[in-house]
Structures are given as C-alpha cells and as structure tokens.
Amino acid sequence: MTTVRLPLFPLNSVLFPGLVLPLNVFEERYRAMMRELLKTPEDEPRRFAVVAIRDGHEVAPSAPGMPDPTSLPERGPAAGFGTDPAKAFHKVGCIADAATIRERTDGSFEVLATGTTRVRLLSVEASGPFLTAELETLSEEPGDEAAPLAEGVLRSFRQYQKRLAGARERSLTTGADLPDEPGVVSYLVAAAMMLDTPTKQRLLQAPDTASRLRDELKLLRSETAIIRNLPSLPASDLTRGPTSLN
C-alpha cells in the first residue's frame, strides 16, 4: 500500500483523473493552501487532493449567519465540516496537479489543475491552517471486456449528446475525436454526463474500468430515454445544480 499526505480541498463535486479543474479560491484556509503550494519548486508537481463533500454537509459560511446577525461565522481549516471532518467527505477522491496558481491583487487565487490519480481517504488532520489528509493511492484495473464496453459506451454517449442538444434546442458541436482507451473513456463520460454528485462518486470509486463502463452504459440508456420523452426545456433547467463555495 502506497500512502501520501497532501493538502485536502473538499468540493461539492467529483474530480476524475484526466479532467481539468478550474478553481476560484477566496476562503482563507484555501488561500493558505495555495500559498504553501507555491513554495514547491516549479519543476516539481504542486499536488493536493480533492474529495467530494457528502450530502448534508456544507462549506463554511462566508458571512454571519441567520437569525442572529451579530454571530460570527465559523473559522478554521475544518469550519463547516463538524468535529470529525473525515465523516463529512466521501472516502475516494482524486489527486489534482496544479499547472497554474495565479494570485490576484485581492489575495484570492485563480487555479487550474488536472486530476491524476484516485486515492482513498485514510485520515484527516486539522491542526494547521488548512486540512491535510493521509491518502492511499488506488490502482486502476481494466476488468473483463473493458475494450468492447468502451465502444458501447462511446456509441451511447454520442446518442446521449444528440438527445441532450435537441432538448436544449441547440445544435450539437463536437471538438476533437473522442478517445478510445477504456480507462480514459470511463472517466471522460463520467465527468461529462449530467449526474448528481452521489452517482458521479459511485462511478469514481468503481472497482475497475469495466465495472464503471457497465454502470455508465445503463445510465446513458436511462438518461437518453428520459430526455427523449421530455419536452423542449431551457438549457438552464437541464444544467441547474449546486454550486461550490470555495
């Protein structure tokens, strides 16, 4: 078992390996994290771990709460996550490698990172200015019949895209050709589908690529059938979801 200790960045969303993560960092605990990461030499990876927050847990308030307008918001690295922060997070997350960390004049940061490796959360430490975690790296096994499953998922994903574009009353625009490597396909489709956080989390922590692809195939067929029977909806209705205060 390979373990590593890294800064921990909880989000109301799931990060997958290979996917780009833009962040607008303005809370002090995460500003402190970015200042620490900037101390890492430029020729070394500036890594932190991203975990999804479990339903029912929110990030720390950014203003005094109601109904008492004089009360002060909770502060500190674990603010908003209870006395045992580890219980507030899903147990499988993803390491992010920050390619860009740009500090603004107001002290906030613009960050662009990429997911690299899945990790399992072992413990959380809240004694410093930001959360850190001990993490176990998770290997990605292909599983049985990953290649033909990936082909089926890509076909279903293209159909899903067409149906979704029709429901939005928009034309379908495609960029570069989709990849065909099963692991990459499984993460790309998981990130691109309009799913809630618990479902995306389930896909992230699938035991192997083939299992993830099988789950995605069922989800794509189900979601495409639902969209087919929907009337035309504004795009905002189809894409509305929770936002993350980070």
Structure description:
With 246 residues, this protein is α+β, with helices and mostly antiparallel strands. Helix content is 31%, strand content 23%. The protein is built from six helices and six strands; from the N terminus they run ββαββββααααα. The protein has a five-stranded mixed barrel with strand order 1-3-4-5-6. The longest helix has 22 residues, at 146-167. The model is unreliable at 59-68, 169-176 and 232-246 (pLDDT under 50).
How confident overall, as mean pLDDT?
Answer: 84
Strand order of the largest sheet: 1-3-4-5-6
DSSP summary: helix tally: 6
Q: Spell out the helices and strands N to C.
A: EEHEEEEHHHHH
The N- to C-terminal Cα distance equals: 31 Å
Q: Main sheet, how many strands, which sense, barrel?
A: 5 strands, mixed, barrel
Q: In terms of topology, how is this protein built?
A:
Layout (H helix, E strand, L loop, with lengths): L2 E9 L8 E6 L2 H10 L9 E6 L39 E12 L5 E17 L6 E6 L8 H22 L14 H11 L4 H8 L4 H20 L6 H5 L7
Parallel strand pairs: 1-3
Antiparallel strand pairs: 1-6, 2-5, 3-4, 4-5, 5-6
Helix pairs in contact: 2-3, 2-5, 3-5
Pfam families: LON_substr_bdg (PF02190)
Protein name: Lon protease-like protein
